[in-house]
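Re: folding output
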Amino acid sequence: MTRGVAGPPTTLLSVFPSFRVGGAQMRFAAVANRFGARYRHLIVSLDGVDSARGRLAPGLEIAFPPPPGGRATLAALRRTLRALRPDVLITHNWGSMDWAIANLPGLVRHIHIEDGFGPEERDRQFRRRVLTRSVVLRRSTVVLPSRTLLRIAADAWRLPSRRLRYVPNGVDLARFAAPMAAAIPGREPVVGTVAALRPEKALGRLLHAFHAASAAVPARPVIVGDGPERPRLEHLAAALGVAPRVHFTGHVADPAPLYAGFDVFALSSDTEQMPLSLVEAMAAGLAVASTDVGDVRHMLAAENARFVGPREPGALAEALRALLAAPRLRAEIGAANRDKARRDYDQERMFAAYAALFDGAERQARTE
């Protein structure tokens, strides 16, 4: 039965490999905050990290039950599912697949959200994981935020098309339309990026590209975010001789004002699907230099396509050089990116799609 605001709240059990700050967690927080009392949330963070909790609005009906202690057998997970009695189980990515398996043959309605792959599957997927997804998810609703993942789910995992939902990530466009720009020291153009400092973000590639590009066009890189890679990246910046010009901000709760201070947005990742930071950069009216990963090329306006290239420092450096040297071109591309974000990535569309899924409105518009 579909439940909404007028009835008792639908209980959603969301299982994350980690509830650290990241794209999937920020999307979850945005959806949860948007609907307030419409849903009751149970969040299981499998590694015990819950740093994204601070992004949730006060007053939400929400709890963080711990995962089963000791050896989390499928039997233990089934007991947990029966004890928590959710209306919907929502698993995220491969790291939560044991919960999807434990739910078989369908203890509760199941939605699986797949945002992409870790660095270990950058170039090819593991056969065991492909086979597991193809079997376990056949009767689940599978949500994909990128068309690249949609093709993989249909062609590689061989999941029925009626089970697949393409739901692109959306952002609050108004937050990035004209925010007060944060002060960034210096006068040179700013090359900015917003990312968790993890290996798959390949921020070393960005530092190498910046080093090469800045020899021709002076600029300042600003790296917004924190994570385990920070000491290595700081050491690399020093080794390249660019440390005095690189600004590591650390964790920033609201990066919107920083986007307004960027001249070019850079994305250097080895693996992405539909990065939220890219949508935010588009909404802020920025031109983008990026590696060609996931849906990035198709997300951006056509005018930006030639600045998306291979996953190597030389191509990224050339894209940065060209954009930094052409302020008028940057402005034209940024305006085109902003227009495309308004057309395709307004968060209200995303909210409506997730509400329909959570409420069991299975007759929603199918993927194109």
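--- second protein (sequence, then structure) ---
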Amino acid sequence: MEEIKIPQRYNYAEAYLTLRCNLNCSYCINKKSGRVNRNREELSTEQWADGLNRINFGDLPLTLGGGEPTMYKEFYKLLKILRPDIKIDLLTNLEYDVDEFIANTSPNRFNNCTNPAYKSIRVSFHAEKMDCNELIKKAKKLQDNGYNIGLFGLNHPSNIEMNMYITELARENKIFFFVKDFLGEYNGNLLGFYNYPHALDKKPKSVHCRIQELLIGPEGNIYRCHRDLYSAQGEIGNISDTELDITDKFRECHNYGNCNPCDVKLKTNRFLQMGKCSVEIIEKI
């Protein structure tokens, strides 16, 4: 199969190895923004490797995410058979055995960006489900063993006190901690900062949209956006397609108004530049 090139404009690439998660947070954005079937078909390790190893990522890291990616049945095997030149990032909740992780991986396997605020292993802290002290202990162990790791809390109104507490714990242990915006509704109010506010008004409209992210679902399908990914709709190809071409173009969409907040929020890009957005949308007049 031929090499797959990522459009130069793309800023992010993520392989959702599984949508299964070992937590069940009440504010989960995946549940709040639409139906999510977590028990989707999942590629075998060999299928993932065959598909991902075809892709020329250039200097773009490949993020392994989920759900919780370490729940994927052969997570460690996949890391070993992916091309060694692919820069790997990991989105995780760290709810697993870190000794097993250290025994089966190397710090050098993960993208070590020179920007000190960029962390290749990004750990989400969920206050209602996790023990602060245990999380800090695990993160410190990984950091002491050479892993480039950072913790990220969610600025949900119910998390404020615990975020303040873990901020102090992280500072004392010299672990990077950052609070991210909560996206979605709380007590009838829409929280977060968005480039396209009408994308979340729940009034479907037709637009033309293009994304600057490569989003690959558990079954290998490539999706136009997170909304399509989680609802398993609107795939534009599969990494196993022999003649796959990832085309950077505007596509017609009739679901504008029911977008996933992740796609239309204002955020930092991989160079940590603020005020960016994953999608570009042309509304029809």
